[in-house]
Amino acid sequence: MGTLPLFPEQASTFAPEVDHLLYFLLTVAVFFTLLIFGAIFYFAVRYRRRSDQELPHVLHGGMALEIVWSVIPFGLTMVMFTWGASVFFRESRPPDDALNINVVGKQWMWKIQHMEGQREINELHIPLGRAVRLTLASEDVIHSFFVPAFRTKQDAVPGRYSTTWFQPTKAGKYHLFCAEYCGNRHSGMIGWIYVMEPQDYQNWLTGGVATGSLAENGEKLFQDLACTNCHKADGKGRCPSLVGLFGKTVQLAGGGTVKADEAYIRESILQPSAKVVAGYQPIMPTFQGLVTEEGVLQLVEYVKSLGPKPGAVPPMEGTTGSTPRNR
Ligand code: CUA
Question: Does the CB atom of residue 181 touch ligand 1 within 6 A?
């Protein structure tokens, strides 16, 4: 069936799974549609009124029939539910060893950052056979990252991170679409996914202009924005040290805790007063409008790179911050 022009190529581990589920749903839907329409036509002919005096029999009850037509659809919908949920859960949980790539949707293009520092627009190069996790952000409105050959579609929503993942099974070039209407050039927000042999991918990664890794770019941005004035590595600054922060649980002023994940670090840069670390003052200004989503992702990557290191200074847990310049 995969060769039918109705279906896009199957190029990820999810593709056959999603297709099998779809075939099942289609089969059930077609079977019952035919059954119902067949019964309608058959009964219309078989029980048509043959004379003006003819009156229909009135039937009362039919427990066996009631049970049959309740239990069979219930069973079928439960199969749909559990099967669909299991595919959905697998699509929702990237494996730990997945290759992380950042994607920012923007009217009207996809901007992509690889951890090693490579950037591309409307193109994504990935190695064959390796699980790839995308962290999606949006600079403006909702976009949706859709790769039909992978059977993957995930919204990029302004103000938050979303993730998706896939594992390509076939080298080649595949369509990338924006699947959420996002303005008058929505239809032009298209691109290509290049699935390369691992060796070719390595060559591609090392070729091109080296601009430093994402974490290095984040560190540079961290210095340019003068974040270092407050966030001192030894924890003696006016803002918490970020060393060893990533993945930790942070105590907040006014009670409560939060896990220092990507979303928390992003929020702390853009809305610093939303979650203030216990023992610190809400003196950090917002960087909303001063840093692009790509920049925020670089900063997040930098904070990750400072991430928990065993034997380092005791973790100073905290929000991101900067010098309280008046902006
Ligand atoms: Cu972006 Cu439609």
Answer: yes
